[in-house]
Design brief:
By secondary structure, the protein is an alpha/beta fold. Helix content is 29%, strand content 19%. Keywords: FAD, Flavoprotein, Oxidoreductase.
Length: 490
């Protein structure tokens, strides 16, 4: 439920007593918040983190743990992959638009290797091994995987494919419960604590406090139901996540996600965005969303995906997030996987991190014509699709959508269809417009003094498309910038 407390900024003159005080006050103890707190503390600031829940972690600790890094990280090199900042940028500009922030992406790519080393120096472990199978994430503790469709059409023809999904090493991962993201957060929090970072829990931030010059000097929050005032001597960092669970904001900005939030937590209510907007903060890409497609990629890659007209629309070997966006945005959320019995059994027996996403066939038949009829498709619609696919698949090619030859195989019989209509969910990518130094920008284009932000409450490197790891990646990268800026721009 969204808090009904007035969101307009408070004047510092009305605050009779500060309940807490620090040089830098960070709202949110997820990936952006912990990264900000570390760098602010290293810059010599006294840091206080305000966390809404009873413990650190946020959505990051529940995530699979992908951090999107490249440009030639030690892990990429150890696994035998060449990459460069320029190659990484070429892919990200093509895959994360339209309207991707070139300045941020250039900055992110050029700083990616250093950021990897920073994470390692903070104690984040990475195993020097590559997982090359289709999937949402590695099922074991491998450290590197393709996570954005880099090795699939059309991107494998735009930039040289290189895996950039870096995953912290962790035993006993449970997807969606305690994933690799936990082993990203745990050492970072321990690093912050060693630096003297303090944290106060059950802190629901309400609004910002400004002085008579318009500078942000604090936050009003509720702790255990009581209103408290928190003074920030140097700066405030907002790092409270997306607005995926704010129904009103979803309806206004990203209506295709109505009723289908995913890969987010209920605390992602957009409060920080609204608090900054009340100061005149600018926004960017509020309609942009990640869209997960909830079917095991080990099955998808072995069949053909068709829409409600029985036509293919996406290469099945690409990133599942791209499949999700193509399905929800361009196919009215209508999708069916056509797969023969042998391929289904092969996919069902393959190693995967998400066996719970193995959907059972809804229809099965001896011929495509019979399957088409059972599915209620117009006569000839599915038959012509399969005929064209099989004609080229016999030669190991897919000239229509360019699925890689290793996954191209004629569809035989018996044949089945998986009903994947509505199998999408996601989270928002838009938010506060910030500089590469994580300053929150006013609609005038000028930074709002004393206010910084990072993570999913901001518009980061993703403007339309998505790659797994870009949220934890730019959240930690620009979280660091926010901490440095808040600590040093007094």
């Amino acid at each position: 439920m969204v808090d009904a407390t007035p969101i307009r900024p408070r004047s510092a003159a009305t605050v009779t007593e500060w309940d807490y005080e620090a040089d830098v006050v960070v709202a949110g103890y997820g990936i952006a918040g912990v990264s900000a707190s570390i760098e602010a503390a290293r810059a010599g600031a006294d840091v206080l983190v305000l966390e809404r829940t009873s413990g650190w972690g946020g959505a990051a600790a529940l995530a699979g743990g992908f951090i999107y890094l490249g440009g030639g990280t030690p892990l990429q090199k150890a696994c035998g992959f060449d990459d460069s900042p320029e190659n990484m940028k070429t892919f990200m500009m093509a895959a994360l638009g339209p309207g991707a922030d070139e300045e941020k992406i250039t900055d992110y790519c050029e700083g990616s290797v250093e950021h990897y080393n920073w994470l390692v120096n903070c104690g984040v472990p990475f195993k020097e091994s590559f997982w090359g199978e289709p999937g949402w994430e590695p099922p074991f503790d491998d450290g590197l995987m393709y996570s954005g469709g880099e090795n699939a059409a059309p991107f494998n023809e735009i930039a040289t494919p290189a895996p950039r999904g870096h995953v912290p090493q962790m035993d006993g991962k449970r997807t969606g419960e305690k994933g690799g993201g936990y082993m990203l957060m745990k050492p970072l929090v321990e690093t912050a604590e060693k630096l003297g970072v303090r944290a106060e829990y059950d802190m629901r931030v309400q609004t910002l406090v400004t002085d008579d010059t318009g500078r942000v000097v604090g936050i009003v929050a509720k702790q255990y139901g009581k209103e408290v005032a928190v003074r920030a001597r140097r700066g405030v960092v907002l790092a409270t996540g997306s607005f995926a669970y704010n129904d009103k904001m979803i309806e206004a900005h990203a209506p295709r996600l109505i009723g289908r939030p995913g890969a987010a937590i209920e605390e992602h209510d957009g409060r920080s965005i609204l608090m900054a907007q009340a100061l005149g903060a600018d926004l960017a890409h509020m309609d942009a969303t990640e869209v997960a497609f909830v079917c095991d990629p080990q099955l998808i890659v072995r069949g053909i995906l068709v829409n409600g007209r029985g036509q293919r629309y996406v290469p099945e070997d690409t990133y599942s997030g791209r499949i999700g966006q193509m399905t929800l945005f361009h196919q009215d959320n209508q999708a069916f996987l056509i797969i023969d019995e042998a391929s289904y059994e092969e996919g069902a027996a393959a190693t995967t991190a998400t066996p719970f996403l193995r959907v059972q066939p809804k229809w099965a038949a001896e011929t495509v014509e019979e399957l088409e009829s059972d599915m209620g498709l117009p006569a000839g619609a599915l038959q012509s699709t399969v005929e064209v696919y099989n004609t080229h698949a016999a030669e190991g090619s897919d000239p229509l959508l360019h699925k890689k030859s290793e996954w191209v195989k004629p569809i035989g019989t018996p044949v089945a269809a998986l009903d994947l209509r509505g199998f999408t969910l996601g989270f928002t990518l838009g938010g506060l417009r910030t500089t590469v130094n994580s300053e929150v920008l006013h609609v005038s284009g000028e930074p709002i003094p004393g206010l910084f932000a990072a993570g999913r409450c901001t518009s980061g490197v993703c403007a339309g498309g998505y790659a797994s790891g870009t949220s934890l990646g730019d959240g930690s990268f620009y979280g660091r910038r926010a901490g440095i800026s808040a600590a040093t721009r007094a």
